[in-house]
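anyone seen this seq b4? input:
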Amino acid sequence: MKKQFIQAVELLTRFHFSCDKRTEEPVLLFLFVVRCLLGLAMTAAAGLMVWMIKDGLIAAALGVALITILHSYITKGKENRVPLSLLLSFRKKEIDVTVFSEELLYQQGVATWCLAIRPLLLFFLLFSGQWYWVLIVFSLGDAIGLETVILKNNLKESMTSVWILAAVISFVVILLGDIAMKTGNAVLAGMLAFMIAWLLPHWFKLLPVKKLTFEMGFYLGEIAVTVVLLCFVTL
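predicted toks r here
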């Protein structure tokens, strides 16, 4: 079990603890746990900024900046290329990236703007005061990502334990946040968000991507969950 967890850490982060080459398929539950630990670190970073800086706008901006830097460092920037990869997957013909063209320049510009989608959504989430929902973004979003990869690549893996853990984490965060913030609508928002998250992988698997990687799945899942949570912020 320890070896499998270390394998998941080495696969998803920049940290390496052994010289052994990976010969086994990664265990989905350990991949999910590693991503949740990453989400916990991002949530702590957001909470630190909100606690230190009283101005909501500045706190949200600095919180997103800190999350982006930490995320890129810990994951070694593996998800920075995901927006461009997803954009290229919708094309019917390949573009020669070694030859300069207006079309290539346009796609690179669009990909650059796509990189700002996740930070922008997180900014609105932090600015709304629900900074602790960042952990829900990672737990539910990464559960969506893993499920999508399994469905898209026709892998025969059970996701039951992952979804149960994602549900437990999400509802614990929601309940504690609901008590701390004295709001009465977070539980309803969490239930609806979980139901939508559970259905999303069956739609994402229809995307025209030949080989859906874990990074692509995580990226799509986290953006989707953030959008859903933002829709319920005003409930």
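The mean pLDDT is 81. Residues 2-78+116-232 form one domain. kinda curious what u guys think
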